Amino acid sequence: MSEIKSKLPHIGTSVFSVMSKMAAQYNAINLSQGFPNFPVAPELIENYQQVIKGDYNQYMPMPGAPRLLTEIGQKVEKHYGRKVNPETEILVTAGATQAIFTAIQAVIHPGDEAIVLDPSYDCYAPTVELAGGKPIHINMEPDFSVDWNKVEDAISKDTKLLIVNNPHNPGGTVFSEKDIQAIEQIMERHPHLYLLSDEVYEFIHFEEKHISINSRKAIRERAFITSSFGKTFHVTGWKIGYLVAPKALMDEVKKIHQYIVFSVNSTSQQTLANYLPQADLSDLGSFYQKKRDFFRELMKNSRFELLDCQGTYFQVARYSEISDKSDVDFATELTQKHGVAVIPVSGFNKDKHDDHLIRFCFAKDEDTIIKATEKLCKI
């Protein structure tokens, strides 16, 4: 049998899978992969139990359950003041990753370029490559801010897409009004450019308020905006998210979506349709801010330098006072020797540059945070 020719020859197992496997192997506390370990809202579980007993076991319509699409539209209008047509401008997806994949496939053709801001979530660049495009990686500043002049300098006639993530994983930063204005100016000066705004942590922001592209009339008609129910409701295993885009863009996305998954899990969709009207999303930021502050307070006597965290449920830390090892080697040592698994930030960089930073996930219950920080403070 002939050997298959890889479409992604340089891609191996993701750093998230590697560190979670290592955490299990060494029985370490897993602060690496970004998933909560505490119960979800009891009302959501009750809704799910009722749906399971009902007759929601067959395919939902390709774009999503009609009631869920309507509820999403109302959510977008309530929080961002944008009126969207549920039938033509919203798509329920199998997680935000599938939304990102499908949007990129819709807009990138062979030879096109897409700008990716590193450190970046690991699905962006490979998806661009699978579409025959070329990812153009621009490194963020050491504090995870963006030099928008560098971004604009990288735009060519072949650049079709700018990919941004706000709030930012792994950096924990949130775009300011100045950042959003810079994006608007870039889009205005380059009318051939589309925007993919990954906003899966949209409700997890603290001192700095998240500004959604949904609220920006000047550019949202050329933007794909992704959201995640998994992140918002602590149900990452449900793998359900959605995409918002104007009809002209969504029509192309749906053509591809129907041949990837066609439709998304019926029981999850019906459950979320029932639950969304009663869910208070305004409390999510304060919920995670308490966890962030709890983690930071317990870490104040450690030798780690905690960077500013304005959003997401990740805390980045510098370990220069502890070790001069690479972040990959240090993360491995933390897992194997000290019993706490983390993510090395260089894994988010195309050039693998290493600033001696690691990422903790604080979306954990208090007992887990206490046990983990006790170990970390002894290092």
From TrEMBL:
Pfam hit, one: Aminotran_1_2
Q: Does the keyword Transferase apply?
A: yes
Q: Where does the Aminotransferase class I/classII large domain start and stop, copy by copy?
A: 28-375
One Gene Ontology CC term in the entry: cytoplasm
- What's the superkingdom here? Bacteria
* Cofactor(s), by name: pyridoxal 5'-phosphate
Q: Which UniProt keywords apply?
A: Aminotransferase, Pyridoxal phosphate, Transferase
Instruction: List the CDD domains hit by this protein, alphabetically.
Output: AAT_like
Similarity remark: Belongs to the class-I pyridoxal-phosphate-dependent aminotransferase family.
Record protein name field: Methionine aminotransferase
Ranked from the top, the taxonomy reads: Bacteria, Pseudomonadati, Bacteroidota, Flavobacteriia, Flavobacteriales
